[in-house]
Design brief:
With about 950 residues, the protein is of the alpha/beta class. The chain is built from 33 helices and 32 strands. Strands 7-6-8-9-10-17-18-19 form an eight-stranded mixed sheet, with helices on both faces. Strands 26, 27, 28, 29, 30 and 31 form a six-stranded mixed sheet that branches. The protein is flat.
């Protein structure tokens, strides 16, 4: 509804040139004709209104604005005696007349204008408002390109198309539609709105497939011709964004050519609800709108709104009005309240209402300019700032603007036209999205509850259908190729030519149920005598013989190059299966848990730790002293007794530290040994010749694989296995027979296949096991042609199945893996090697080294201290150090000494030294000072 009829770009150019050719200086001479108001509050303030009187929105806005001005003037507390003088002008749905009327309105010294109504006209008038500094408060211009950066004096008192198009995108997404056709009026309002819709749809994974632009003057016949060209399109979801008059013509044309029948979806922006709420439609018009969806700005109920609606109803009863109040009427009412509240703040600050002429507009080349009567509102910038900062509870709800000058808190009601009335089926807000709960009642509802509650009520669609339309009709039925297998039919089983069962087909059918617009039929590929080659099957999609392939198809690089795959629905990988054989236990089974390298390393560390503890304990521990043979035996006994977490008595701190670390290591090694030995003795042992893929490659035995699988080429290229060794097998029964016979009797030594097949095989055939691990990762998916629109849709549906748990339920139902359950577990036949425990041995070695380093440093210090008795001994020590052999012998004897004996000898030496020092002091002569007291000493005599 908010468009500009016959708008011309030259109007903008003329106005911009008129205001920008000259500098924007103001007149300051005596002839300036400046109207000043004294410091007291003015008795009157002029405000304007600019809209189309005869439009559906304009009829409601005219009465709402008049009631609002009357209420403001009757409220003495609002403006403290100042009255608003309202001047309204009619834009006549015409660009030229609308611009002229805006200039005429601004000549009346208005401080603010309610309007313009149309977005396209708002672009032009906003240029003038920027120059004259007059705020524009529009109650219906929703074009998102009307931004504060370009139009600072444009203030939006309604929602922006950004919010409305986001609501439409969420509505489209909630029903799984991926494509829409946009029908719009070809002006700024229509083009910018549809551009915003396109961005919103992309964010939810949808898109606009076609755009149908209607010229402003088009009638039903021209519109019908455009719509007729859209009937050949597959998309059946239409979004209509235009004015109410053109919108009704469009719906009428669509009705005539049968586009309002079952299967279609028509979504109208708020132009439709503005007409419905106004009560201007006849019964025949309501019949045209059956099944349509529209959005209406949500205005919370309040006492003030109830009073206004009651007054409105009284005016209609008295035949003073022929329209009903709608949301845009409430926005127009709040626009007047915004001006009044802001003016009151402006005047309370002592600001003046003053206008000044622009000197550059007073004359041009000596002639009187037609724009000379336009004046600049000197307080416009201050009033605009106050408006942006204002907030109050209006008729339409809380009124507060964001930094861009747009009304905050945009919410919508989803309306469905059914029968002779229209009904609300839900709400939309930025926080909750689609919901059946009023936005003002959602503050106490957690986010988790939104997922539990239904989003919308039931909808009556065009054709009075209650079944959700598919939204898209494809030109042809999809032909889905499926492999006609001879084995593992639990995954895919073809009965006849198009009857398909199995896990893979069940997943595809469940996914397509979430995409109701897809029609398909299955077609078998292969003769049924043997499993077809899957590479050839996938190639049929690239050759356009199939529209897709459904089956147990692995996603491989060579296949990815020619087709697109959906989101994987099964994780897979290649494994090796061998027959289980009993082997007789022997006397050396206890050595099985560890490798030879591990046994040798462990024994070596027992000796290393024993030697380290002996060195650390030898001087202080009596158990580590005695005859050399006895010391060796005690040391070995001490070292290996730690195997049982028991050890002899230790005296030194360093010895205890080493022992604690070693006992911890022994505990871990012992526990690992016990666990592995228990597993070895408790389960059947595998064939010793095949331990995994690498031992299988080294062997020369035949290898089985599933017929038609990629395994043959993979083993040949990646592992260089001769193709003569590879034996194709069709079914699980042939797997079991070939493995049982073995390579010497015409069978195979092992089978290499994907894990899902092997799980199913082992569940029904006992006596076989998986050896090694998965040596390559693969996934299964459905194949579609390159750049197919279905790939993303089916991928999204598979993710939905996975998240809801339905995918797992399908697997449990289709693939019953119960019997021989213990056989499916993989046995790791590898022994524990050094690579598992090397960290423990490293820590033990480091601790031993540090302890011995500290011990020897301490011994060297003690050795040198004991050898430095006096200066003579110091020289002797230097001489001893010069002889390495003598030093080593002395140091070895020192270390070999028992620490208790050394301590006694050190105490004895200290007592001897102390006695000698005492005797030396007693032999010293008396000091000279004491002799001088007995005999006088002359200066000439020197002391002896």
């Amino acid at each position: 509804m908010r468009r500009l009829l016959h708008g011309q770009d030259y109007l903008v150019i003329v106005l911009v040139v008129a205001f920008s050719v000259f500098s924007p200086s103001y007149c300051t001479n005596a002839d300036a004709n400046v109207s000043d108001v004294p410091n007291t509050r003015p008795a009157f303030v002029n405000v304007g209104a600019h809209f189309a009187f005869n439009s559906s929105i304009g009829r409601v806005a005219k009465t709402a604005i008049e009631l609002a001005v009357n209420d403001v003037n009757n409220n003495e507390n609002l403006l403290n005696g100042t009255k608003l003088v309202l001047t309204m002008v009619d834009s006549n749905n015409n660009a030229f007349m609308g611009t002229m009327k805006a200039l005429e309105l601004m000549e009346k010294d208005v401080v603010a204008i309610v309007g313009p109504q149309f977005s396209a006209l708002a672009h032009i008038v906003s240029h003038i408002a920027n120059e004259l500094q007059i705020p524009l408060l529009s109650f219906s211009a929703t074009d998102p390109t009307l931004t504060s950066s370009e139009y600072p004096y444009f203030i939006r008192m309604t929602h922006s198309d950004v919010s409305e198009m986001a609501a439409i995108a969420d509505f489209v997404y909630s029903y799984g539609w991926k494509e829409v056709i946009a029908v719009y009026i070809d002006d700024d309002y229509g083009r910018n709105g549809i551009s915003t819709l396109g961005n919103a749809l992309v964010s939810v994974g949808a898109k606009i497939t076609n755009k149908a632009a209607m010229a402003p003057g088009d009638g039903p016949s021209e519109m019908g011709n455009v719509l007729a060209s859209l009937t050949s399109m597959d998309t059946r979801v239409f979004v209509v964004h235009m004015c109410s008059d053109a919108g009704l013509k469009l719906i009428s044309a669509a009705k005539d050519i049968g586009m309002l029948s079952t299967g279609y979806v028509w979504i109208a922006t708020d132009w439709l609800t503005s007409v419905l709420d106004s009560g201007l439609l006849e019964a025949d018009d309501m019949n045209l709108l059956q099944g349509l969806i529209s959005l209406r700005p949500h205005t919370p109920n309040s006492r003030q709104q109830s009073v206004l609606r009651q007054r409105w109803k009284s005016l209609r009863t008295a035949n003073l009005l022929n329209v009903s109040l709608n949301a845009f009427g409430l926005y127009a009412y709040d626009s007047i309240l915004m001006i009044a509240h802001s003016l009151n703040t402006y005047l309370n600050r002592g600001e003046k209402i003053s206008f000044v002429k622009q000197c550059t507009l007073s004359s041009a080349r000596g002639r009187k300019s037609e724009l000379a009567t336009l004046k600049v509102f000197e307080g416009g910038a201050q009033l605009r700032k106050i408006i942006l900062q204002s907030h109050f509870n209006g008729i339409a709800g809380p009124v507060q603007l964001d930094k861009n000058g747009d009304l905050m808190g945009s919410t919508f009601e989803i309306i469905n036209v059914a029968g002779t009335r229209f009904r609300r089926i839900g709400y939309w807000s930025n926080r909750t999205g689609l919901s059946i709960t009023r936005p003002e009642n959602t503050a106490t509802i957690s986010d988790d509850e939104y997922h539990i509650k239904p989003k919308l009520s039931d909808i009556i669609w065009p054709g009075e259908s209650k079944i959700t339309p598919r939204g898209c009709v494809r030109g042809k039925e999809l032909v889905i190729g499926v492999p006609k297998k001879t084995g593992y039919q639990e995954f895919v089983k073809v009965n006849g030519s198009d009857q398909v069962k199995g896990f893979c087909s069940d997943v595809f059918i469940a996914a397509v149920k979430l995409l109701p617009y897809i029609r398909y039929r299955f077609k078998a590929y292969g003769t049924g005598d043997s499993t077809p080659n899957y590479d050839d099957l996938v190639e049929q999609v690239a050759l356009q013989n199939f529209d897709a392939v459904v089956g147990d198809v692995a996603i491989l690089t060579n296949r990815w190059k020619i087709v697109d795959f959906t989101q994987p629905y099964v994780e897979s990988g290649l494994v090796v299966v061998v027959p289980v054989r009993e082997i007789d236990s022997n006397g050396w089974a206890f050595l099985h848990p560890f490798t030879l390298e591990m046994w040798c390393t462990t024994a070596g560390f027992f000796l290393i730790v024993g030697v380290a503890v002996w060195i650390l304990e030898h001087r202080s521990n009596q158990e580590f002293r005695g005859h050399p043979k006895q010391q060796v035996c005690n040391g070995l006994w001490f070292a290996f007794s730690t195997m049982f977490l028991k050890a002899g008595k230790t005296m030194s701190t360093l010895g205890r530290a080493v022992l604690i670390i070693w006992l911890f290591v022994v505990l871990i090694i012992k526990s690992s040994y016990t666990a592995n030995l228990s597993a070895t003795l408790a389960v059947q042992q595998l064939s010793p010749t095949i331990k995994g893929i690498h031992s299988l490659v080294r062997a020369s035995s035949p290898i089985g694989y599933q017929t038609g699988s990629f395994v043959r080429n993979y083993l040949s290229k990646e592992f260089k296995i001769d193709k003569s060794r590879l034996v194709p097998l069709d079914s699980p029964e042939r797997y079991a027979r070939a493995l049982t016979l073995g390579p010497n009797k015409g069978g195979v030594a092992a089978v290499v296949d994907e894990l899902p097949y092997i799980h199913l095989f082992l569940s029904k055939h006992c006596g076989f096991r998986i050896v090694g691990g998965e040596f390559t990762k693969r996934e299964w998916g459905f194949a579609f042609p390159k750049n197919s629109a279905f790939t993303a849709d089916v991928s999204t549906a598979i993710l939905s199945l996975s998240e809801s748990g339905e995918l797992q339920r399908i697997q449990d139902k289709s693939l019953k893996i119960d019997s021989c359950k213990t056989q499916t577990s993989q046995i790791d036949s590898n022994k524990f090697g050094l690579k598992i425990f090397w960290g423990l041995f490293l820590v033990t070695g480091i601790v031993c080294f540090i302890a011995l380093l500290i011990f020897f440093c301490r011994m060297i210090c003690l050795f040198c201290r004991n050898t430095h008795r006096d200066i003579e001994n110091s020289k002797h020590c230097s001489h001893a150090l010069s002889s390495s052999a003598r030093f080593v012998k002395s140091f070895a004897r020192f270390i070999d000494k028992r620490e208790d004996g050394e301590r006694k000898e050190r105490l004895k030496r200290k007592r001897t030294e102390k006695k000698m020092d005492l005797e030396f002091e007693m032999c010293q002569p008396e000091p000279l000072g004491s002799l001088s007291q007995t005999f006088p000493v002359h200066d000439a005599i020197s002391p002896l």
